[in-house]
Amino acid sequence: MCRQEAHSPESEVIVKTAQDGCAEGLIYGGGGREGLFIKEVVPESPASKSLKLKEGDQVLSATVYFDNVPYEDAIQILEHAQAYKVKLCLKRKPDVPETEPIMESDVIPVNIFQLFYQSLCDKWS
User: Fold this and answer.
1) Collapsing DSSP states into helix, strand and coil, what is residue 25?
2) CA dist., res. 25 & res. 62, Å (int)
3) Which range is the signal sequence, renumbered to this chain (predicted)?
4) Tens place of pLDDT for every residue, the chain, 125 residues?
5) pTM across the whole model
6) Which of 12, 38, 62 delimits the end of a domain?
């Protein structure tokens, strides 16, 4: 997807990287109001080999996959993200009324859905 803005001579291209891509080897710059940018892609790093990233790309968002992530690391990531807009993808077992007995042979379907959660901080108000 490419969008050309009338007031800007630059074009904006949004690149989605592979889910199994590794961000090891990226050096970031900027931050704050100017945004976060990829300052450097270290040659021969996992990021240089598996991602379609270039120096100067602006990082608009990031998705962290929690499969095979140690509990402590996952909690640290989520705690640091509390003050910002967060999009969570959750898996939840459906509610089962307490009056119905559950047999071991019963199969309980699992619904997968996306929940959009936005932390409302002073800076987003």
Assistant:
1) coil
2) 16
3) none
4) 334 344 455 666 667 776 666 788 899 999 888 899 999 999 988 888 877 888 999 998 888 888 889 999 999 999 999 888 888 888 888 877 766 665 555 555 555 555 554 444 444 44
5) 0.56
6) 62
